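Example record

The entry below shows one chain as it appears in the dataset: sequence first, then structure tokens.
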Amino acid sequence: MNITILGHSFTPSTMSVSDFLDYWIKNYCEINLKYNTIQAYKSIIKNHIKNRIGMYRLSQITPSTLNELMTNIYVEKGFSKAFLKNILKVLKGAFGYATNVVEFINKNPAQKLGLPSKDIPDSDPVHIFSQEEIEMLLDRFKNNHCFYYAILTAYYTGLRVSEVFGLTWEDIDFENKTISVNKIVVKKNQKGYSKGKHLSGKAKTIWYFGACKTKGSYRTVTVGDTLINALKEYKIEQDRHKLEYGYTYMKHYKKIVNNPYNNQPETKILNALAEIDVALPEVNFVFLKDNGIFEGTDTCKYPFKVIHYELGIPCRFHDFRDTHATRLIEARC
């Protein structure tokens, strides 16, 4: 059946919602969005949208359908406001694309869609660390120097977790007491290989350098003597570890590769034992295990289990950033 809108003859699509969402991910998201956002959207689509409305035709979806979808997800799952906003973002983005860009449907059923009117708790409330808690954390992790110095850096600079673990020693100016924030690290799971053979179904963590969150995120942070002296000590210790581990120390290199989604260059981090000669620029990460292994933001996984269940502090790494901002405000009062 043809529909005429403002002189334009339009045929509603017979494509299913499930097929359309795959189309949207491939033709829009993978080209325009960052890796972590794409993975988050894919997860939402798989776990919360396709299983509820994926079997319907795209042209059958109405505002009532999507409103019922959001209400049922909230009632059944009890998700936080932040997560429900992400689901809403996917629905609005996908159906907006279907309407305004590819014109598979003539009216956007998600245009006026909102969150359920019931009170929805915010997720992960901000935790501002007390001085006593900071001292407790530093004492608990005094033997885990990678995490210990990462905590110090986050607390004294307010850097995000991906910025902290993206730091290289070239970013730290000991003489002028500054830290330059010019990149982040991004984790991607890719199919792994062992002894030259492909491991079907397995995933291997690959780290990449990525762009900072916003233009304003590129910055130079002035730091005090406490952090500068601590990082000097850590640098001396790291150099000693390189000598102690010798050929078995893990080194890291950067290689420019092509992103298969958007056909743009990106920087991939490669690893090799010191005994292997690699003809690529070396990456001198600040936060490494004693043997040189780089775990990026995964460095925080076990320590935060300890913080939550042993120390009983309900927090996230991002709370060091919020605590830093709070201390700055207090200092100006």
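Notes for this example: The first strand starts at residue 3 and ends at 5. Residues 2 and 11 are 5 Å apart (CA to CA).
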